[in-house]
Amino acid sequence: MELDIVSLSRFQFALTALYHFLFVPLTLGLSMLLAIMETVYVMTGRPIWRQMTQFWGVLFGINFVMGVATGIVMEFQFGMNWSYYSHYVGDIFGAPLAIEGLMAFFLEATFVGLFFFGWDRMSKVGHLITTWAVALGSNFSALWILIANGWMQNPVGAVFNVQTMRMEIGSFFDVLFNPVAQAKFVHTVSAGYVTASIFVLGVSAWYLLKGRAPEIAKRSMTVAASFGLAASLSVVVLGDESGYLANEHQKMKLAAMEAMWETEPAPAGFTVFGFPDQKTRETHFAIHIPMVMGLIATRSLDTEIPGIKELVDGTYGHIRRGILAYDALTQIRALPRGETVPEELKASFEDNGRWLGYALLLKRYVDDPRLATDEQIAKAAWDTVPNVPTMFWSFRIMVALGFYFILLTATFFILSARHQLDRRRWLLRVALFSIPLPWIAAELGWIVAEVGRQPWSIEGILPTAVAVSSLGVTTLLITIAGFALIYTVLIVIEVGLMLRAIRKGPEGMDDHGPETAPAPSASATVVAAE
Amino acid sequence: MILHELIDYPTLRVIWWVLLGVILIGFAAMDGFDLGTGILLPFVARDDIERRVVINTVGPVWEGNQVWLILGGGAIFAAWPQLYAVSFSGFYLAMFAILFALILRPVGFKFRSKRESATWRSAWDWALFIGGFVPALIFGVAIGNTLQGVPFRIDNEMRIFYDGTFFGLLNPFALLCGLVSVAMLTMHGAAWLALKTQGPVRERSVRYGRLAAIATIVLFALGGVGVWLLVNGYSITSPIDPAGPSNPLLKEVARSQHAWFANYAAHPWTLIAPALGFLGPLLVLVLIGSKREILTLLSGFVTMFGIISTVGVSMFPFILPSSEQPNASLTVWDTSSSHVTLFIMLVTTVIFLPIILAYTSWVYSILRGKVTARQIEGGGHAY
C-alpha cells in the first residue's frame, strides 16, 4: 500500500467499517432471536423461555455495546476523512443517516437499557414490547444505512447543481425505493439473522457436547435452526437479486466478480475456479460451467454480458464527454455573478453533465482534466476496473459459505424436528466450529460490494480519489494507529468476556428461583411442534 | 415535488438553525448528565459499591442519551453538509480524541462489573472519567475556536483546506470555553446524582455540584468578558440573499471587535439567552441538596439552553467563520442543504421527535426512583 492520503483514508475506513461490522450482524440477528424467544415466553408462560432470553441477552449486551462504541466512529468519519464527499453528496446521503438516528437509533438505544434493567419493573407484555422495540430499532437502522449505501452503488434521484457544485436531491422517492438498496437491505439483515442463528446453534452445540443445560440448548437450537434456515435461503436469493441488479447498474462490478475479461456469447458461462491476473488481463486455469452466469445476471438465454475489456473501451467515450462537461462547468462558474449563461455552454453541460464524474477520474493524474493526455485518459479508463482477483475470490468464498449455511441449518432443522439434536456428536462439533464462518461471509460481502465499487465512492459520479479530506499523512497514521490499538485491545477483552459468559452458562440465569427449574424434557416435543 | 414550496427556503434555513441548536442542547441536556456523572465518578464514589451505584444511575439510559450526539452528526450532515465537512475534517485530531474517549464509555459501563478484580474495575472507572471529561472539554474548546473563527479556506471547486494545527486549537480563550463546558456538565451530572442517589454519594455530589455551579457562573462571565476583549467577531458586509445558493464564496465578510454583540443591540430580547445562562446555574446552586431534585435537574437543562443559545445568538447568521478567508465563512444563508432536503428532513423531524420524546419519558418514568446498593447487590442485571 502506498502511503498517500487516499490509500490511508481508504484503509482507515475499511478498518473501522469492517471492525464495526463484526458486531452489527450479531446485533441484528440476536435481537430478533431474543424477541422470538421472549414472545414464546409470554405466549406459553414457560419460565425456561425467559431464562433463555436473559442468557442470550447477556451475550447480546456485550456485543451490542461494541457495536455502539464503533458505530459513533462511522457517523463521524465521513466528515473527518471524506470532506469533499460530504460536501458533494451530503444533500442526499446525509438524509438517510439523520433519519436513521431519528427512527432507528433512538428506538433501539432507548429501549436496550430497559431490556436489561426492566425485567422486574414492568409487566410481561411491557417487557416484550421493549425487546421488540430493540429488534425493530436495529433492523430499521440497517434499512436506512443501506438506503444510503445503495445510493452510493446506484445514485438515483439526484441532480448536479452548478451553483453549489454538488449533487442535490431530485426525487427522494427514488432514493428511498432504490431497487439496489431494497435488495441490499434484505440481503444484509438476512446475513445478520444467519450469523446470530449459527452463533446460537454453535454455542448450544457446545453445551450439548458438555452435557450442560440440555433443555435450554435444544430449544435454542430449534429456534436458531428454523430461523437460520429461512434466513440463509433469503440471503442467497437476495444475493442473486443483487447480482441481477449489478448487471443493470454496475456492469463492471459483475464483470470483475466473474473475472470476465472478454464479452462472451450469451448465455455466458460461470467460472467456478481460476486465477485472475490483473496485469495480463486473463484468468489462468479457469474452469467454466456453461450458461449459468448468463442466467443469473440476465435471467435470459440471449442477453450478452459485457466483459471487462469491452466496458473499458466504452469508458473512453465517457471520459471525453466528461471533459466537455468539466469545461462547460468551469466556464459557467467563472462567469461574473448575475450574468446570463451563454446558450452553447448551457447546452454542452446539459448534454454531457452526467459524465462529469468521468472527468474527475483524471484528477489523479492532472489537476485540470481538460489538459489530460491520451495516455492519462487510457490510465483513467483502466482505473475503472476494480481489483479482479479480490473480487473473484471474495465472491466465490461468500457464495460457497452461503450454500453451506443452508445445508447446516437445514440439517439441524431436520434433527430438531426428529428430536435427535444430541444424537450425533460430530454434527454438534461441526456446528461449534462453524461459528466464525458467517462473519467471514459477511465481511467478504462488504469487500465485494465496496471494492467492486472502486474507483468510485459514488458510482459514476464521484471518484474516491477526489472525495478525501485534505489531511496530512502523519495525521492519518496517528489515527490509524490509535484505532488499531484501541480496537485490538477491545476485541481481546470482548471475546474474553463472551467466552466467560458462555462458560458461566445459562444455569442460574434467572433470579426467580424455583419457578425456573428446568421443565420436563417432554416439553421439547411441544416446542418442536410449535 | 411541489410540497416543499409550503415553507420558503430562508424560513427553512432559520428553522434548521434552530433545530441545530435544539439537537446540541438536547445532547448537552441528556448526554450531558451522563458525561458529568463520568467526570464525578472517581470523586463522589469512594468504594466499589458506591461506584456501582453511580454507574447504575446512568446504566439504563446512557445509550439512548448518546444518540443525541449521533443524531447531531447525522443532522448536521443532512442539513448543513459543508459545516459537517469543514468542522469534522478541520478539527480532525480533536474529533479523534473525542471518538477515542467515547469508545471507552459504552464498553466501560458494560464491562466494568463483569470481573471482580479491583485493578480491572479501577481501570474502567478511569476510562469512564476520561470518557466524560475529554468530550466535555473538547466540545467546549471547539465552540471557543468557532467563536474566534477557524483557519480554513475553500477553493473554486468547493474543496476544503484546513491550515490550522491541533495545538492551535488549544489557545487560552478556547480552553476557557472548554472549562465552561466541563463546569456546566459536571454541575448537570451532580444534579442528576442528587436525584438518583442517597447517603454519602448524594452529599458529595451536592458539594461538587455547588462548586461546579459557581464555576459555571464565573467561567461563563469570564467567557463573555473574553469575547468582548479578545475576540473579533464577524459580519456580512455585502447584500444578503437568504434564498441564494449554498455557496459560501459569494459574500463579503468583515472582522471587527464587538461584532458578536451586534445581535443583542439590535434585538435586546435575545439577551434572555445569556440571562438564562446565569439563571440556570444560580438556581442549581440554590436548589441542589434540597428536596426539589427534579427542579434542580431542570435548572441544569436551563443552563444548557442558556449557554448554548448564547453562542448561537451571538454568532447568527454565522455558523462557522473562517479566520483565514473570512468571505468563505459558513453562514445560515449559504451553507445549508437544498430546499427539498431541508423540507423532507423537517417533516421527518416533526414526525419522529415527539415520538422519541414520548417513549423516552416513558422509559424514564419506569426507571424513576433512587438507585441503591441493595438493588445492585440483589439484581443480576446491574452494571
UniProtKB/TrEMBL annotation, chain A:
EC code(s) of this entry: 1.10.3.-
Q: Where is the composition biased (Low complexity)?
A: 515-530
Localization recorded for this chain is:
Cell inner membrane
Q: Which GO terms describe its cellular component?
A: cytochrome complex; plasma membrane
* Keyword Cell membrane tagged: yes
Bilayer-crossing regions: 20-43, 55-73, 93-117, 129-147, 185-209, 221-239, 393-415, 427-449, 461-493
Q: Which GO terms describe its molecular function?
A: electron transfer activity; heme binding; metal ion binding; oxidoreductase activity, acting on diphenols and related substances as donors, oxygen as acceptor
> What keywords were assigned to this record?
Cell inner membrane, Cell membrane, Electron transport, Heme, Iron, Membrane, Metal-binding, Oxidoreductase, Transmembrane, Transmembrane helix, Transport
Main location (coarse class): membrane
- Could you tell me which PANTHER family the record lists for this protein? CYTOCHROME BD-I UBIQUINOL OXIDASE SUBUNIT 1, CYTOCHROME D UBIQUINOL OXIDASE
Q: Which family does it belong to?
A: Belongs to the cytochrome ubiquinol oxidase subunit 1 family.
Q: What name goes with this protein?
A: Cytochrome d ubiquinol oxidase subunit I
Annotated organism of origin: Pseudochelatococcus contaminans
Automatic annotation (TrEMBL), chain B:
A GO molecular function held by the record? oxidoreductase activity, acting on diphenols and related substances as donors, oxygen as acceptor
Against InterPro entries, the record matches this protein to: Cyt-d_oxidase_su2
Q: Where are the transmembrane segments?
A: 14-45, 91-111, 123-143, 173-195, 207-231, 269-288, 295-320, 340-364
- For the keyword Transcription regulation, the answer is no
Q: Name one GO cellular component term.
A: cytochrome complex
Cell membrane found in the keyword field: yes
Q: Which GO terms describe its biological process?
A: aerobic electron transport chain
Q: How does it sit in the membrane?
A: Multi-pass membrane protein
Alphabetized UniProt keyword annotations? Cell membrane, Electron transport, Heme, Iron, Membrane, Metal-binding, Oxidoreductase, Transmembrane, Transmembrane helix, Transport
Enzyme Commission no: 1.10.3.-
* Taxonomic superkingdom: Bacteria
Q: Which Pfam families match?
A: Cyt_bd_oxida_II
Compartment(s) of residence:
Cell membrane
Question: What's the family?
Answer: Belongs to the cytochrome ubiquinol oxidase subunit 2 family.
NCBIfam families, alphabetically? cydB (TIGR00203)
Name of the protein in its database record: Cytochrome d ubiquinol oxidase subunit II
